[in-house]
Amino acid sequence: xxxxxxxxxxxxxxxxxxxxxxxxxxxxxxxxxxxxxxxxxxxxxxxxxxxxxxxxxxxxxxxxxxxxxxxxxxxxxxxxxxxxxxxxxxxxxxxxxxxxxxx
Length: 103
Fold this sequence. Notes:
Layout: H1 7-20, H2 25-37, H3 41-54, H4 59-76, H5 79-95
């Protein structure tokens, strides 16, 4: 997990921001990380799935998802997260072949 004395403080901020600006993609991505840090991974995954449904061709969102699921895999060793990470990485390459490989 990310270290920090008060991770819930960022969660409160990003929840408020997302309520005020519900269509802001970057705000929602930050919210998912704040949820993850606050041990609300299931809620974060629901938001990511909703974002992918609304923005299926956004390669930056797929790149974010790839990194998010890669982190979950490292934390849990659940191979499902590794498969999701790799799937999103392939989608990034499909949508924008010029993006440098992150890892």
